[in-house]
Amino acid sequence: MRIENLTTLIYITKGTDCLFIRKTRKGDMNLDKYLGIGGHFESNETAEECVIRELSEESGISVSELDNFRYRGLITFISSEYPTEYMHVFSASVDDAFELPENACDEGELCWVPLTEINDLPIWEGDKIMFDYLFGENRESGFFTMKFCYEGSRLASHEEKSW
């Protein structure tokens, strides 16, 4: 049973690139946006179990292929249009020789994007704040918590804290 308001995402780096999925499923609130790989919890899953399962399902990547697999933060999304969501964020890296498995991802298109270009992608405004904690000036700050309040697709307010 899928749990609607609990989700995971993982951002995987390969050198100076980051793996994204461009969502292409019609009716998805993230249609044409670039996101990390992840999805909704199933019954009785931990955050780690969920992200590992979603990573395998959406990309064919096994957690054993990852280096520096880390639980990085928890983000609360409050929206005027959607139910509140609690997203558990992970990060990892792969070796420069790593190649994506050949598979058909029904969630969207997988692609490597240079870290210097990620803020130029069609992404949620709050992702830019999160990226600073994953890849930018705050990347060494440890575990983070964030709260993003959206009015429609506009980020109306946010809070952030590192632990």
What report would you give on this structure?
- This protein is mainly β and 163 residues long.
- The protein has a single domain, classed as Nucleoside Triphosphate Pyrophosphohydrolase, CATH 3.90.79.
- The protein contains 2 helices and 9 strands.
- Strands 1, 2, 3, 4, 5, 6, 7, 8 and 9 form a 9-stranded mixed beta sheet that branches.
- The longest helix is centred in the first third of the chain and has 13 residues, at 47-59.
Brief characterization of the structure:
This protein has 163 residues and is mainly beta. It has helices at residues 47-59, 125-134, and strands at 2-14, 17-23, 34-35, 37-42, 67-79, 85-93, 108-114, 144-151, 154-162.
How are the SSEs placed, and which strands pair?
Elements: E1 2-14, E2 17-23, E3 34-35, E4 37-42, H1 47-59, E5 67-79, E6 85-93, E7 108-114, H2 125-134, E8 144-151, E9 154-162
What general outline do the C-alpha atoms trace?
A: globular
What is the C-level CATH assignment?
Answer: Alpha Beta
Q: What does the main sheet amount to?
A: 9 strands, mixed
Number of strands: 9
